[in-house]
Design goal:
4 copies of one chain form a homotetramer. With 341 residues, chain A is α/β, with parallel strands linked by helices. Chain A is built from 12 helices and 13 strands. In chain A, a hairpin with a 4-residue loop joins strand 12 and strand 13. Chains A, B, C, D: Pathway: Amino-acid biosynthesis; L-arginine biosynthesis; N(2)-acetyl-L-ornithine from L-glutamate: step 3/4.
């Protein structure tokens, strides 16, 4: 198994999860190359001092040659870099891409939101979507969902699939800063983000908008219009997603739809009535906590979901997808227990 | 001038602003009684060590007798306590209530959201609403708006007043913790709120919902349906309000509506295109920063506003209202400069 | 196994660790009573929503009767409450007290810092101290160290034991807020602690001062004078301990002393030269990361240590001690991998 | 008046303070050029959205030509860039350098800690030091102190000057992140600093060490040995300085020394006994809050001081120095009121 982009946040989180994976503990799953871009040549401990057991591992340069020969390759690369690597890897290698390159099924959406050559799409690593699990069993190419689409899709897919809402969904997601990655930027400095929340990419400008729309439209079997507003909050991890859509059902009916949709899901938990999701209770966990209610005055279904953007929102989904792809137990290496407070 | 509830956050912020008020500096406005409930007998410095010039002031008990005889009285009391005090104060005394007691014009809304006897309503301290300023000139009883309604009302009043949106507004507001007050509660401990965001009072349950609806309906001249979701974020101050409503105008047309509405307002700033509000830039300031855009895919007007919940959201509005009521310059003691980073 | 005080932070962290303990996973270790004081009757999920697998467990009242009959009992109670419970439990029950009641060997120190009846002292749960591990094997009563003493003792014990410093140690420890517990207090509100650091209990006033002195004096074989300054920082978890003491050795010599002392310790990691400890890399982990250097201008050994106050500083030490007491592998249920960023 | 480096944190804070300066309000002090390096050509509002009244000001490039012709020039430049600019400015221009270039009187210390050509030293902008105020009256070149040395020098100068401690001082300072500036670096990203404290530059490695030693030695009239440990905390602003030094006086005697030293100082406040400084109470303020105690067991004087690193620690000192240099009232544009919570 290899991890490309091991010095980044996605790479680090994949490694954190793998260290507790039963197959790693028994030695069935072995850690081969850890690669990086500009950080090649340094030790993992310089970038991820929290991964003490791997602190002395030296990062090699991210090349197809370095990654070839591994049975499983995780890619945590900047957008646009995965295709060139992936096409040089054997078709039998399980390649799990945490980037956006292979998420969108619509090349026009790709052109509008990302640009550059459209690379196609791979099986999408969100087993909780209708039909999502089946697509991943035995897959050798997997596109890990974006962090915002994970929260929004799990929050609204049951409602649009069951037809209990009109296909117009408003999503406001409040995210920790690690979702913006580890490349140094002035507006992500601690001094800038602490003590402040800010919106960005409003009015449909954020790249995750078409991905949410794609997921919900597929679940609904009809086009779902999505309004998406991302907000940056002063915390390292976590996304709280608040969604609403016009409905005429009661809260009890809506809860029943969600109960049926997620009762068998190991990572999605509908909270007891009256208890609301908070990101602080899913840090480091692969869980999604949900609450569902109806605003009868406004005629809206309101759904709130909490995830850890780096775990269920990225690396946890990658490991969960790997488990399905290669035949491990789906929950291996993943927990529903967060670190709190 | 007296401040009741001086050891709380609203009281402390009123005092912070008054210390820079020109009339205080010249001695025309003098600080009389500072009162508290359980903290009576202690010094202000024990509760507000940031107010060094007033550190030795001793808090007296909050009684009508203690407050009587002042020409201006600010009330920063728990909800439900203002009416009993106010009715014992002279009608000529300018009484400015930071609590909810006199905000709602609809007694049914009061019954549903607050309960207890409905005390009536006072002139509402939000000069930026249509007709809002006129109501305050010479007023002797003023109800300071709630912090969430301030952000949401300033964000959406121009659009509903101009009729450029359908009267269905979705509001998600992300607030710092000081809005919840200073009474010790386990779920507001630093350990609980840091590193976490959480929703609460969803689906119309929050008490500020009817107040937002009241303001927007008055501005629109028709009933405006409001869906309101409050979110608690790990920061002491600030509210970021994100709003949307169905529209068919262009972004340029919408911006023009807001430009006209707020060009003459000293505290409301429409940011340049592409720049988004952040709470960190209005900390300690009475400013509201706004951005307006249209999501053409979703057919929605999107408005984002940032305020400091303790300043423009509470104490700044109280001081601004006082200025209008007693004939000071409206901006006295108030600034559009925040403390950042 | 039972946990008293399960709704508090120490109790919650013990449960978090136990959920991954091999003996719990296999069913050899079973969770019996979870008890609480005022929270008895509520579910664990209301207090620790991050412990999803235990969310439906109902808390019973903390009484000796409720705890009796368990082979292992963890006590996470307010100081002064453990003795009365413990004396009613069988001598064969392994009782592990996270409170201060049985830590101090000097009744005069107890009188001065805690007061009330001196209850005696139990084997001290810090295996990394000289002779510390032996005391715990087979023990049935264990006093878990205080969080500050854990960091300070691990940081300075090797130096005082080796005699490379004069027995005068200055300790400044910067702690997250969870160390102050979960009882609601106004000065621990998020609004108060975020964006601020403050000292407290300076000049020898903090109760952990005699415990640090006790540990270092025992390690040194002579009285070690300790100056201790605790500082509260705006984060939920973690303690960074900075220590200094007069020395005449070189940095290389000092590092060699620490290398020898901790090479075989599973949880203590001397970082590579030039890399400094940060609390963020040990969150949720039982690791202690250390750096050792000499300020040649000042003639001082400088040691910096990072721990998670709730894990190695409390619940991790409790589990580690349990492992030694009952014959599990010492590292069971404990990790050296933190959750970061 | 001109500000070079106006898009940085020091520059922004100078502008924030100047906006409230009486001479600016009356128009006697006028804002000329605002300059920047890479940010030249952009508006101030893009970098300091909290300075709304100046949002449209365009930054010009930092050159001596651009700065010439102003009567007062503030330099907020990276270390090593001030000398080349300053020597091209008229000797009558009041040049106030917020960088380190002209702080150290000892060229050997400069060589060891900074390197490059030693530029000499200017009158030092800390009026509260013995003789400090006199040096600044009428000065045309001023070196603003480093942020850490400000806290440590104010905390310990009275004690060393009065001879009540041995000349060996241990300083541990916990700082917010803005002290590290605004240049993007991976280890200063919000994701890295939130939820974590870390030490850096220990054992005498930090550049502020010789500056603290210089100040305290001058105050003592003899060489004072300084051990300095800086710690980075998760907050944007503020420095809490904890100091200790061997003493044989009582706490009352020590407090008396400090009372005498600072009674007439407008910005230094010795807190009542039992109240401890916290950075949160001096945010945006030019105040220094102090507490003084004696640890009789350890035989140490313990002093704790809180400042805002950007205000009293940088820009406030710059404005205070300007006031003294050009004959304004020393406190003009400066406040002892912080923004809290």
């Amino acid at each position: 198994m290899a991890v490309a982009g091991a010095s980044g946040y996605a790479g680090g989180e994949i490694l954190r999860l793998l260290l507790t994976h039963p197959a790693y503990v028994t030695g069935d799953l072995r850690l081969g190359s850890l690669t990086a871009g500009g950080n090649a040549g340094s030790t993992l401990g310089e970038h991820h001092p929290h991964l003490l057991p791997l602190a002395d591992r030296v990062l090699s340069a991210t090349t197809a040659r370095e990654l070839a020969g591994h049975d499983i390759v995780f890619l945590g690369l900047p957008h646009g870099n995965s295709a060139a690597i992936a096409e040089q890897l054997s078709e039998e290698t399980v390649v799990i891409d945490c980037g956006a390159d292979f998420r969108l099924t619509d090349s026009a959406a790709w052109d509008r939101y990302y640009g550059g050559e459209y690379a196609g799409h791979w099986p999408y690593g969100l087993p909780e979507l209708p039909g999502g699990r089946e697509r991943l069993i035995g897959a050798t190419r997997i596109a890990v969902p974006g962090c915002y689409p994970t929260g929004a899709s799990i929050a609204m897919a049951p409602a649009v699939a069951a037809g209990i809402v009109e296909p117009r969904v408003t999503v406001v997601s409040i995210s920790g800063t690690s979702g913006a990655g580890r490349a140094p930027k002035a507006n992500l400095l601690g001094s800038e983000v602490m003590g402040s929340v800010r919106a960005y990419g409003i009015a449909g400008a954020h790249r995750h908008t078409p991905e949410i729309r794609q997921n919900l439209s597929a679940a609904a079997g009809t086009d779902v219009v999505v309004s998406f507003t991302p907000v940056l909050a002063p915390m390292p991890r976590g996304i709280l997603t608040t969604c609403s859509a016009p409905t005429s059902v009661t809260a009890a009916e809506a809860r029943e739809v969600y109960r049926k949709a997620y009762d068998a899901e190991p990572f999605v938990h509908l909270l007891p009535e009256g208890q609301l999701p908070q990101t602080g209770s899913v840090i480091g966990s692969n869980a999604v906590t949900l609450q569902v209610d109806v605003d009868t005055d406004a005629g809206l279904l309101v759904v709130v979901a909490a995830i850890d953007n780096l775990t269920k929102g990225t690396a946890g989904a990658a490991v969960q997808s790997m488990n399905l792809a290669v035949g491990f137990t789906e929950t291996d290496g993943l927990s529903t227990v967060g670190v709190a407070p």
